[in-house]
Each structure stands twice: as structure tokens, then as C-alpha cells.
Design brief:
The chain is an alpha+beta fold and about 220 residues long. It has 2 domains: about 80 residues, no CATH class; about 100 residues, Alpha-Beta Plaits, CATH 3.30.70.1430. The protein contains 7 helices and 6 strands; from the N terminus they run E-E-H-H-H-E-H-H-E-E-H-E-H. The protein has a 4-stranded antiparallel β-sheet with strand order 4-5-3-6. Helix 4 runs antiparallel to helix 5 and helix 5 runs antiparallel to helix 6. The longest helix has about 35 residues. It is elongated and about 80 Å long. The two termini are about 30 Å apart.
């Protein structure tokens, strides 16, 4: 589906894509995923409707477009010719590399008596958590600053606070479609820096500008 808009009119056009010959041999889950991807591929613009909005007839849709046509047109112009990418940062394996303070404690634990070693291990866990938290912040800040240099807008998605989770940060990125290769190079370089050692930096997209189609314009590098 492809959506187009001017200040006074909207148009929705459906495109059909030929089916693949091997559809019958695919698992049903694979066919559903592929079907969703095929229908989303030609979509370049998204209107800022609430997720899960349902209209049982055309009257409600026409009323919505008529009353909010100017707003929708402005939002669509803001993302026209642009796409959205997702940059995610995760810890690899059991976590990031250990710092000097943890290595010092490891040496003390190895040489300590059982009782003192137990206390030192508790201290080591605290120091390791603090080091990991600081490294998480440093990696996320470096990624954000680097991405902002090439992107038009960057939005840091909120994550559930869980020290055991591998996810460190997730950014929605709006950029011109013709900068896809450049953005990919930037993310690859991010994954090769010393700061990101022990972390995995991944890029997915391009997608239609789902996040930025409905995000207020003042939320440019927020959260």
C-alpha cells in the first residue's frame, strides 16, 4: 500500500505483487512473514494514526482525513524521501569486557582465604555491575553522537530496566533513503571501535517512517 497526500486530498493505492511459485512448499508462518514484507515494501509514507485504529467504514476515514488533512500533509512532507532504520546495541556473550578494578579483585580473590574470598566476590559483583553500567552509557553515547552526524532525526527508544538483559540501547533513525550505504558504513565502524568492544551494534531497515510519522517535531534527539 502506498499513501500520498497534499494539503487538500489523500489517495490510497493498492499494489499487487505476483505470487512465488514455491508458496505451497513454504511453512504457513514463513508465508505470513513474507506476505507482510511484500505488502510493506512499496510503502514510503505513513500517516500518524494510533496503532490498532479500526474504521468499520469509509465515512470515519473520510472525516478523519478531512479534519486533519493539513496536519497529516505536514507530517508526510517531513518524512517524504526518507526512511527509518533501527540501530540496536547489545552485550555479547556474558557481557562487556572486564575493567582493571575487576581484574585486581580477581587476583585478590585467588590469593585470599575462603572467608575473605567470599566477601571479595560480593564486592567484585558490585564493581562489575558499576563498570558495566558505565560502559553501557559510554557505548550508547558514542553511538548516538555518531549517528546524529549523518541522520536527520534520532529517537532513543525506551527500554525496560533489567541488568540481566543484553539490550543496552535502541535508536530509531530517520535519514534520506540515498544515505543507506553511508549509514551502514557508520554502524559498521561503530562496532569496530574500542569503546564498543564486547558489544554488538546492529542496523535494520530501511522501513517506512513509522516512528517519525507520528512523533512531534520537537522530539528530535530526546529520551
Amino acid at each position: 500500500m502506498r499513501c500520498a497526500s497534499t494539503a487538500s486530498s489523500w489517495r490510497v493505492r493498492l499494489r499487487r505483487r505476483p505470487r512465488r511459485r514455491s508458496v505451497k512448499s513454504e511453512p504457513s508462518s514463513s508465508r505470513c512473514l513474507r506476505s507482510s514484507s511484500d505488502r510493506r515494501a512499496p510503502l514510503s509514507l505513513c500517516g500518524p494514526l494510533a496503532f490498532g485504529a479500526i474504521y468499520r467504514g469509509t465515512d470515519g476515514v473520510r472525516d478523519l482525513l478531512r479534519t486533519r488533512a493539513t496536519e497529516f500533509a505536514d507530517r508526510l512532507r517531513a518524512v517524504d524521501g526518507r526512511a527509518e532504520w533501527i540501530v540496536s546495541i547489545e552485550r555479547e556473550g556474558s557481557g562487556a569486557l572486564e575493567g582493571d578494578a575487576v581484574r585486581v579483585l580477581d587476583a585478590e580473590i585467588a590469593a585470599a582465604a575462603p572467608g575473605r574470598a567470599f566477601l571479595l566476590r560480593k564486592r567484585r559483583d558490585e564493581v562489575a555491575r558499576d563498570e558495566r553500567r558505565m560502559r553501557d552509557v559510554a557505548v550508547a553515547e558514542e553511538a548516538r553522537a555518531t549517528i546524529e552526524a549523518i541522520a536527520e532525526r534520532v529517537y532513543r527508544e525506551p527500554l525496560i530496566e533489567d541488568p540481566t538483559a543484553a539490550a543496552v540501547a535502541r535508536f530509531s533513525v530517520l535519514a534520506n533513503r540515498d544515505r543507506e550505504v553511508e549509514l551502514g558504513d557508520v554502524v559498521r565502524r561503530l562496532g569496530a571501535t574500542g569503546t564498543s568492544a564486547g558489544y554488538r551494534v546492529r542496523l535494520s531497515g530501511p522501513w517506512p517512517a513509522y516512528r517519525f510519522g507520528g512523533l512531534p517535531s520537537d522530539r528530535v534527539a530526546s529520551a
